[in-house]
């Protein structure tokens, strides 16, 4: 009986494959049908051998974000020219910065602050992340800085942070973490506005309280 049941399952699987092949040949080109069938075959083979995606390192992530904005009385292109280079952070965040790998402004460049990697860019924006560190959970921390046009003569500086806070102990810790990051980065946006409008930054506040640099993972 077990052998008979196995044969029936194989027969049903064969019939299903034949029906799929007939459908693909009828409604798709021969090349597309062949590619689809090949992909299906590879997927079935992997499934049969028990292969698949590895389990998630953090099974239940909780992604959160902070969006900080400032309206600037300058065109977006002028704003970006003033504050948008990858190591301009050294001026508006008052942290020494240098490019330690790659070419400034190109995807893949690494700056000394947090060993942050430039992972994406447009004409008026860039996105960065921080590397995985030994012995620490990877929280997928990303930051995006953008100069967004509003009118021909005005724009917005938009700074967005995104990360996974599921590794923190509870809701209170997660909320405190979010407030800390917001308090740390909001002055950076204010400084960028001052610089973009041609002003001079006020004296830097005293270091301390965890301020003055990007958050550690």
> Level of helix content?
25-40%
Total number of strands: 7
CATH architectural grouping of the largest domain: 2-Layer Sandwich
Tell me the number of helical segments per DSSP (H or I, 4 or more residues long): 5
Number of domains: 2
- Please give the largest β-sheet: 5 strands, antiparallel
Strand order across the largest sheet: 1-7-6-5-4
Judged by helices, strands and strand pairing, the structural class is: alpha+beta
- Percent of residues in β-strands: 15-25%
The helix-strand sequence is HHEHHEEEEEEH
What's the alpha carbon Rg, rounded to whole Å? 26 Å
Low-pLDDT sequence parts: 1-8, 209-213
- The rough form would be described as globular
**The CATH homology group name of the largest domain:** START domain
Q: Would you give the CATH topology of the largest domain? A: Alpha-D-Glucose-1,6-Bisphosphate, Chain A, domain 4
Q: Mean pLDDT across all residues, rounded? A: 83
CATH class of the largest domain: Alpha Beta
| Intertermini distance | 58 Å
Task: Write a concise keyword list for the protein shown above.
Alpha-D-Glucose-1,6-Bisphosphate, Chain A, domain 4, 217 residues, single chain, two-stranded antiparallel sheet, 5 helices, alpha+beta, 7 strands
